[in-house]
Amino acid sequence: MQEKYIDETKQGEAFAIAEKDGNSKKLFLESYGCQMNFSDSEIVASILNEQGYNTTLKVEEADLILLNTCSIREKAEQTVRMRLAQFKNLKKERPNMTVGVLGCMAERLKTKFLEEEQLVDLVVGPDAYRDLPNLLKETEGGRDAINVILSKEETYADINPVRLGGNGVTAFVTITRGCDNMCTFCVVPFTRGRERSRDPHSIIEECKNLWENGYKEITLLGQNVDSYLWYGGGPKKDFGKASEMQKLTAVNFAQLLDMVAVAVPKMRIRFSTSNPHEMTEEVFKMIAKHDNICKYVHLPVQSGSDRILQLMNRQHTRQEYLDLIKKGKEIVPDISFSQDMIIGFCSETEEDHQLTMSLMREVEYDYGYMFSYSERPGTPAHKKMEDDIPADVKQRRLAEVIALQGELSRKRMEGYVGRVHEVLIEGISKKNKNQWKGRNSQNAVCVFDMQEGQNMGDIVNVFVFNNTQGTLLGETVK
Predict the structure, then answer these.
(1) How does the record describe its quaternary structure (predicted)?
(2) Residue 294 marked ligand-binding
């Protein structure tokens, strides 16, 4: 999902689905943060749909309000707290209404949330959504309810997610949960638990189901998709204890990509997010092998300085990262890359900052997600390192990185001009209701005039004649 270059967590997004006959209760469900949270919200809606809840976009008519939260930065948590404050008067008017907090913020704060936010009745972590029916019974009895137990097994593989909102063209398919990487700045291992992979057959069935229901593009999701490893179930860390037969029949990410591409040969396939130390040459080869796997990789680097990378526990060096990029471009010549960058990490010097800038110039990213470092309670960096870079220095360095990425993005977009691209129509342009918007294989957004006979979900040939910093301007060709 291509965003502006701003230091801002994606704002809450409310969803609604078609009503199920017989359901009498109303659920208002709002998601914040990453794509995994939006995917999880679809799982939650599916579970509660079976418990008598239909979703609504009108918060004032809700019997149950759920916020699926993000803890990646302090600003994300502040946004959720401000949103909760907006419900206080509504709660007074409707005392029987239940307010719950889901996801990473719930997992991080646990019972503290109930103490700090008197409005909240329900606190549920990412691995406890199956327990929602029981927890809601607790709240009906006037008691607060909480389940933040992390699981080593839960993947929700058997739950067919209800597709919330969206465009009916693109969908997320979760393939892994949790993370074992322990980057020192990151709260995810503590809020989403150990890494485990989902049964590949359930993934393929979900992808087939989506194709049969008219979807044309899927994004395989995980905190670290490249570490996908199915050997019959259980955490990846226990793979060493697996039987010889389990090891021989195990499925890694490159093999999963191959299986999905063959199973739904006309479906466009993307994946996110990758980790440099887990990314393999085989994944690039699968992208080259299958036309329906998009030529785009989101490959977070976080810093261009080896010293900072080591402090972050990133498990890759600058040179290893650059070698991986080089290999990807050799195997898939038209491939595009995007980045995540943390600016102003503990003890970052001006030299470290310049190394980040030089790495960006060398890679020439299509776009990126850039943020100043935000100390997260409970992480190794919070416990052992000093957040010692002044705010004004962080902001100045961030501004320089954003400006550079703007230059690189414009240059990359210019490289697509004068060529014909296959673009999947995903919706109507926000700026012009007479234009379609979509993305090419490299994930670049393209807008073009509507033509008679074109519909959402069509893949059309578009000649790109111009560009802006983040958008291609084109016209359809026969």
Answers:
(1) Monomer.
(2) no
Structure tokens at 363: 């890679």
For residue 100, CA distances in Å to 114, 211, 288, 342 come to 10, 33, 45, 31
Pair (386, 270) in one structural domain: yes
Q: Are residues 141 and 179 in the same domain?
A: no
Q: 422 and 391, same structural domain?
A: no
Classify 50 as helix, strand or coil: coil
On whether both 189 and 123 belong to a single domain, the answer is no
What SS3 string covers 288-315?
Answer: HHCCCECCEEECCCECCCHHHHHHHCCC
Examine the fold and report which residue of 92, 115, 147 is the final residue of a domain before the chain moves on: 147
409 and 445 housed in the same domain: no
Domain count, the chain: 3
Mean pLDDT in consecutive groups of 10 residues from the start of the chain, 478 residues: 33 59 87 89 92 91 94 87 91 90 92 87 94 93 90 88 83 94 92 93 96 96 95 90 92 98 98 95 98 98 98 98 98 97 98 98 97 93 97 98 97 97 96 96 98 95 96 94
Q: 423 — alpha (psi -120 to 50), left (phi > 0) or beta?
A: beta
Residue 381 is assigned to a structural domain of this protein: yes
Distances (CA, A) of 138 to 55, 141, 385: 21, 5, 41
**pLDDT at res. 35:** 87
183 carries a ligand binding annotation: yes
Q: Is 446 labelled a binding residue?
A: no
Same domain, 375 and 422: no
Cross-strand pairs, 370: 341
Amino acid occupying residue 413:
M
Domain presence at residue 154? no
pTM: 0.89
Rg over CA atoms, the chain:
22
pLDDT of residue 18: 52
Do 311 and 387 contact (CB within 8 A), yes or no?
Answer: no
| Range of the structural domain that residue 264 is part of | 170-415
- Using CB atoms within 10 A of its CB, is residue 446 exposed (0-12), middle (13-18) or buried (19+)? buried
Dig out the tokens for 348 from the structure.
Answer: 């970052």
Beta strand 122-124 with 98-102 is: parallel
Return the amino acid letter for 265. Answer: P
Dist CA 425 CA 415 (whole Å): 21
User: Helix or strand or coil: residue 128?
Assistant: coil
Buried b or exposed e, range 124-140, using 16+ CB within 10 angstroms: bbbbbbbbbeebbebbe
